[in-house]
Amino acid sequence: MSVATKELLENLNALAAGLFLLTAFGIVAMRQARGCLNLFIAQSLLLAASAALLGLRYHSGHLYGVALVNLISKPIIVPWLLRRTSPAEIYTRREIDQVLNIPAALLIALALAIGAYFVGTPLANAVGPEFRGPNVPIGIAVLLLGAFTLTVRREALSLLIGLLVMENGAFLAGISIARDLGMLVELAIATDGLIIVFIMGVLVRAVQKQAGTTAVGELASLKETATMPAADEGPL
Amino acid sequence: MSVIVILLLPLAAALLVCIPFGRRWVPGVTVVFCVADLILVGRLARQVVSGAVPAQLLEPAWSRWLAVDGLSALILLLIAFVASTAAIYSVGYLAHSKVDGKKLRLYYANYNLFIFSMLAIPVLAEPALVWIVVELTTLCSALLVSFDNTREALEAAWKYVVLSLMGAGIALFGFMVLFAALHAGGGGTYTWTGLVTAAPTMPPVLLQLAFLLILIGLGTKVGLVPMHTWLPDAHSQAPSPVCALLSGIETTSILYVIMRLFPVMQAVPRAHAATWALVFGLISVGTAAFLLLQVKDYKRLFAFSTVEHMGIILTAIGLGSSAANYGAMQQIVSHSVTKSFCFFAAGATLLMVGTREIAAVRGLIRRAPFIGAALVFGALAIAGAPPLAVFLSEFSILKAGLAQGQYLVTGLLAIFIVIAFFGILAHVNRMVFGAPMSPSPGPAHSWPEAIPRSRMPFSCELALVLAAIPVLVLGVYVPKALQDLLAMAAATLTR
After folding, report:
1. Is the bond into B27 cis (omega within 30 degrees of 0)?
2. Best A47, A125, A158, A228 residue to mutate vs chain B (most B CBs within 10 Å)
3. Cβ–Cβ of A178/B179 closer than 8 Å?
4. How far is CA A46 from the centre of its chain?
5. The complex's ipTM?
């Protein structure tokens, strides 16, 4: 492989990683639950692209496997599972009363991304010079952005996507520093992601039946100070 | 070979309970398979103690994926024991709650899968696979936590899943950094033993980062403060036998994964792994001790006591001397057996009085002597009253701390344990011996004057008696075989 091709592949990977970060920002800013899901699908495709490009660059058949698993499980099976398990209502919800307004949330997200850059760059260098590249800092940034989404959202689908975004972030960093973790592990992690979607889908349906809402984050009757919560209490 | 059978039994049980053969079949299969697993695990532990080499326990072909040493045998033993008593307890508990056949099968299928995922944690050798089964413990138990299908149970299950998985996401990155560290240090097999061997050549900065990420990520699931917020909810809203599993062994088996990192970290100079353990441990014990004082719900009381005990164990591991490590292993055993007993007693109370509120239960000893006595016994045992199991283990941890000259840590630990002691006993004392409040202010207090003893399901009483045996015995006498196992387990915590 010529030097020019290698550089081209690295640059394309950087582009995919950059767009990957952009989708994470989009998920922080997006109020429409359906839009969050679409952005997540786009993000998973970019993760697959990054894995395939790195696989091509470093001749790692294992990374092609990661790309293929991501291509099948997240854009196809996750939405299908959600449709099967959870009420259709979760797609149509909009979060009007977020804990933070969008500009404030984006500002914090930006701070997290910059922080991740300062943590991630020395880390990638410690692993070895060939791991320099945008994957580790961007992976950490997206991990943090996913966690941030979890703390400010109330809607079931947004929370679920926050979790999956965290996993995507860990993976984007992982495919560059832990290239040959083993196919068994990759497959198991992908299956695990699907079980997450299934279990949470079932839970959301039960919550919607019982409490009449999919804003799961607003269920807050279990507290230390309150005595036994009565069924008609709560901020719903 | 038997290791594989141990893992396959709960999976087989999970499949078998899905066959609709009537109401007795489902719990029967589960009890039989759990007890069979306990016997196999006991045999395995005996082999480990008598110094069997790995090749005798496992075929060499499996050694890349599975491994059993003293620590894993100890954790396996605890999981199998609590799984068996909780399976026996479930029979009566569910019969009393009158659930329909479909829900019964759902409960037991999840129950067996949950047991499988926990049993897999200590025997899997590859850290990344351990991460996956840790995830599975969350996912298999989520529907057990929400089993009652009330608003509160669903809220608790949701919090449990979201926070545990959030922690798992952080831990996943930690395990990947650990793998990268292994490769940067020149490679080796990615197993616990491979990591210990390769540790001196790994870059310290990567190891430290991996340790912190895993401590925080999995610490969420162990219930370390400040990531503990989901624990009292999930551990109080789940059906009581599930609480016994969650509090008694799930937390312990996740803590086991963190413990596996300590021998790796000891190869790194100035890694401060022990300091982190002391800090997280003491903060957890202290916070839980004070939160215990103001609970309103007696199942939450025992849930906070779990946070406290996880803190005690982590503190003991942080102390790091061989005596402290031995104490930590003792504490793991005594906490598991005692806490499961406590939740059985709390569940029996709930069956009798129908409320979780401490203030609504008074004079239990006169109305239901057996349950009242069990609740007092459980509270005394978990608070650490002599001559019961927890007292012995807490005493050896404090003694080890003093012997090391760690006076500040030991002093703080002792103070927090005393506060928790009075917190637990004050609440339970009022529930069991307090004068019945005469004109009941609310509907919650209108429980019948005298509860006929026959209403208590037999299997619940049997489980209570079985669970009480080790609590009593281990306080005065630790069998030689168990002592050896504890010593072997403690030895795996140091290089």
Report:
1. no
2. A228
3. yes
4. 12
5. 0.90
